Structures are given as C-alpha cells and as structure tokens.
C-alpha cells in the first residue's frame, strides 16, 4: 500500500530535528536529566544521527535526529530520511525544526523511506510514521509518494513478470482507479493502424507489441505524456553483451515514470486534459526480427535507416510522438531510458532534458531545485541535424562516430513533433546505490519536477 501520514494518537512522540549550528542552544534548553542523557549518548547532530530520549518511567519520551550542516545537506537530498530507518516503529511529530527546514520535501522523503520492493522476498522499509507537518498539503505529498512508488515497483519487476501485457495491465489498473479511458492497439493491428516502427521493433517477441493510449479529463490545457515501454531490450540482432543486458528490465523506465506522473496528476485532480501514450514492446531476436540496414517508414512518413537494432527506443517513441502531435496538445513530454551517452554526461542522479522553449526550461529547472528532483538542460543543437541524415533515408537511428549520442537521439525525436511544444527527458530510472529515501533499484526521475512546473508551463 502507498504510504500515508499517520493519525495523531495519545502515544505520538515529539521529534527534535537539530542541525549543527543549533545543537548547543537546543541542548542547553533541555532539563538537566535529559541534557545529561544526550551527553552520555555522545549524540552529535550529523545527518542520520538518532538519539532516543527516555521518560521518567523508562519508556521512550521523544527522539532527536541530526540534520548536519548546510554544506552537507547540499550534497544530497532527503537529509532527514537518513535517520528515519533508525527510529522505532512509533508515530512522531515535528516538535522543533531548524530555520529554513523544508518540511514538504522532508515529509515526502519520510514517506518514501517506507518503500521496499517485497514482491519476491521479505523486505522492509522504515517503520516510523509521521504526522503531517503544519503547512504541508498531505493530499499532495501522499499522491506524489504513491506515484513514485508505482514507478519504482514497475521498474523493479523483472521482465518475466513485466512484459508488454503486464505493462498494459498496470496502465489499465491505473485508468480504472481514476476513471480514465484506455485504448490498446496490439500485434498486427499496429500495422493496420499505421504504427509500423512499434510493430517492427516488437514483432520478434512472443509477447505482442502494443500501443497504450490513456486519456483523462475533459477541460483545460492538453498535456500528452509519452513513455518508452521497452520491457526488455536484448539489443535485437545487434545483441548486447551479457553484462549490458543485466539491467534491461529497467528499459521501460520512461513508461513507468509517466504512469507515476499520471497517477499524481489524476490523484490531485489537476484542471487539464491528460493523455498518456506508451509503446510497449520487447526487443527480441527471432527469424522475423528487424535487421541492420533495413529502412522503415514511420507513422509520420519519414523513412529511417536502421544502423543498429539496439537503438530501438527512439523508433517506438517516434510513432507514438507522431500520434501525439496529431492532436496538437499544449505540451508533449517524452520520458525514456534512451541513451548511455546521457549517463556518461550527467551520471545517474540528474535528469537531462531537452526543450526549445526557454520559459519551459526555466520553469522546470526552478521546479526541480525546489522539490529536490534535480534536472539539467541539454541543447537541441541544430548543427548536429546532419548527423542523423544518412543519405539513403530521411533519418539514421544510430549515427556512426559516437559523438553527442543523447543530443542526436533527442534531435531524432524532435523530427516527429515539429510545430508542437515538446520536451524530452533522457532519464536513467535506476539508483545504483542506496541513498536516503531512495533504495537501490528503480526510481522515478523528473516526474516531481514536471508536476511542480505544470501550473507555469500550462498556465493552470
């Protein structure tokens, strides 16, 4: 179940959040016995530090957690969450917090600390619960946490239990939850409905490729989210080596992230018209697999020379983006675990994004900084357009040379939404090592920043 804030009870305990500079004044304010106890435990207010304070009857009366120094907090996010797993399974409320304490972000981190992926083996997140802090919108934070956990669960599930059919089932469950409509085009119907590149990429799998099309809302600006749903990527005939295939269950991270974001939007009942498009495929190897050297004709009519079958994500996204543009939405946002080049450029924590509109870029950057969902703007660099033009077709899906791989992939996608307001995220979708509120494994990237920026981007 998604985490929620606790209800106050008679046994709710106070929690003191103390940073380095306020530690001595806080300690001096304690009664002599409690002050002696804190000194005896050698508690220091470093990030993640915890001390339980006893009552006169020997029970736990309160707890204090360290919040470190500003420079230490700037090097990470969800600083409070570093201590949450060390607290006992009790209900807490913030008794004191430092000046400038971001209660909204830290409360979200607290909720996310309870997450553990336990589908296949017993696992537990933090057990301590929190009363929603004053001034924090509990409904909003709970919706964001639920959307993030949906994303994590989808990415963490291995491909044998998260193929195109199961991804469809997850989308249908989300649609049913919020009264959204959903249509699915699958198998050879993709050819009949003019989604030739989705079909080409997914036809070699025993699990039929499909396009998921979910719509919600009947008033307000139009927002279309497009998520790459490659449920497993062998690389196709350009087969990946084994060590590169090990994490390919996460290649549907873009789809998982837009579904998580859609959950947030619908749970908060934002005044907009939402559409979610997910090309769901498995890039496999068989006798009918698409080949290097093939030239495919896309939904938009642009021809694409296949120079690497492992550059399949942009192909399925292209057909979905062409469909999205036909509806002339106010904003199209694609999210995809698209290129290793993006990881080389910015690592696993930052979400690189591309957009031509400076106002949208600024809104996203500011939102990302505000909600601890860091982004980095990358350029749609027009001089590189020639790199994706092979000569015998309109476009090349894998330009030779290896330069600017994330940029050329973004330029490729932009060709299918010309004339629309378009933003593309080239995310990683995976946390390689455990961090506060972000265990190792699948993770949402960019969704919270987008949600925060939507009022400005769409004029809500």
Automatic annotation (TrEMBL):
<dbReference type="GO" id="GO:0030145">
    <property type="term" value="F:manganese ion binding"/>
</dbReference>
<dbReference type="Pfam" id="PF21337">
    <property type="entry name" value="Peptidase_M17_N_1"/>
</dbReference>
<dbReference type="Pfam" id="PF00883">
    <property type="entry name" value="Peptidase_M17"/>
</dbReference>
<dbReference type="InterPro" id="IPR000819">
    <property type="entry name" value="Peptidase_M17_C"/>
</dbReference>
<dbReference type="InterPro" id="IPR048816">
    <property type="entry name" value="Peptidase_M17_N_1"/>
</dbReference>
<keyword id="KW-0031">Aminopeptidase</keyword>
<keyword id="KW-0645">Protease</keyword>
<feature type="domain" description="Cytosol aminopeptidase">
    <location>
        <begin position="308"/>
        <end position="315"/>
    </location>
</feature>
<dbReference type="GO" id="GO:0005737">
    <property type="term" value="C:cytoplasm"/>
</dbReference>
<dbReference type="GO" id="GO:0070006">
    <property type="term" value="F:metalloaminopeptidase activity"/>
</dbReference>
<dbReference type="GO" id="GO:0006508">
    <property type="term" value="P:proteolysis"/>
</dbReference>
<keyword id="KW-0378">Hydrolase</keyword>
<protein>
    <submittedName>
        <fullName>Leucyl aminopeptidase</fullName>
    </submittedName>
</protein>
<dbReference type="InterPro" id="IPR043472">
    <property type="entry name" value="Macro_dom-like"/>
</dbReference>
<dbReference type="InterPro" id="IPR011356">
    <property type="entry name" value="Leucine_aapep/pepB"/>
</dbReference>
<keyword id="KW-0464">Manganese</keyword>
<comment type="similarity">
    <text>Belongs to the peptidase M17 family.</text>
</comment>
């Amino acid at each position: 179940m998604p985490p929620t804030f606790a209800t106050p009870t008679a046994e709710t305990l106070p929690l003191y959040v103390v940073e380095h500079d306020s530690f001595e004044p806080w300690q001096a304010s304690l009664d002599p016995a409690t002050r002696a106890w804190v000194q005896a435990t050698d508690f220091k207010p470093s990030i993640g530090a915890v001390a339980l304070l006893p009552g006169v009857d020997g029970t736990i009366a309160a707890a204090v957690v360290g919040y470190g120094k500003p420079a230490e907090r700037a090097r990470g996010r969800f600083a409070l969450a570093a201590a949450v797993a060390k607290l006992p399974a009790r209900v807490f409320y913030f008794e004191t917090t430092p000046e400038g304490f971001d209660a909204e972000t830290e409360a979200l981190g607290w909720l996310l600390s309870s997450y553990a992926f336990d589908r296949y083996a017993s696992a537990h997140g933090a057990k301590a619960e929190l009363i929603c802090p004053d001034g924090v919108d509990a409904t909003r934070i709970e919706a964001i946490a639920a959307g993030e956990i949906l994303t994590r669960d989808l990415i963490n599930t291995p491909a044998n239990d998260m193929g195109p059919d199961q991804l469809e089932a997850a989308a249908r469950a989300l649609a049913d939850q919020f009264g959204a409509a959903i249509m699915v085009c699958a198998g050879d119907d993709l050819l009949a409905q003019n989604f030739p590149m989705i079909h080409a990429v997914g036809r070699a799998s025993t699990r039929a490729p499909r396009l998921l099309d979910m719509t919600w809302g009947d008033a307000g600006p139009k927002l279309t989210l497009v998520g790459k749903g490659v449920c497993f990527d062998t690389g196709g005939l350009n087969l990946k080596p084994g060590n590169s295939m090990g994490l390919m269950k996460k290649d549907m991270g873009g789809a998982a992230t837009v579904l998580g974001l859609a959950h947030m939007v619908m749970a908060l009942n934002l005044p907009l018209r939402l559409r979610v498009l997910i090309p769901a495929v498995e890039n496999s190897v068989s006798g009918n697999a698409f080949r290097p050297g093939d030239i495919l004709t896309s939904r938009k009519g642009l021809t694409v020379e296949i120079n690497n079958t492992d550059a399949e994500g942009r192909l399925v996204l292209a057909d979905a983006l062409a469909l999205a543009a036909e509806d002339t939405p106010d904003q199209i946002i694609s999210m995809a675990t698209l290129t290793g080049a993006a990881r080389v450029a910015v690592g696993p924590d930052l979400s690189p994004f591309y957009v031509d509109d400076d106002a949208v870029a600024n809104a996203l950057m500011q939102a990302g900084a505000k909600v601890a969902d860091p982004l980095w703007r990358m350029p749609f660099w027009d001089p590189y357009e020639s790199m994706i033009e092979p000569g015998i077709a309109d476009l090349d899906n894998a330009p030779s040379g290896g330069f600017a791989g994330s940029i050329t992939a973004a330029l490729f996608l932009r060709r299918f939404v010309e004339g629309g307001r378009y933003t593309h995220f080239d995310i990683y979708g995976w946390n390689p090592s455990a961090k506060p509120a972000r265990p190792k494994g699948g993770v949402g990237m960019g969704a919270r920043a987008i949600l925060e920026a939507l009022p400005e981007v769409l004029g809500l």
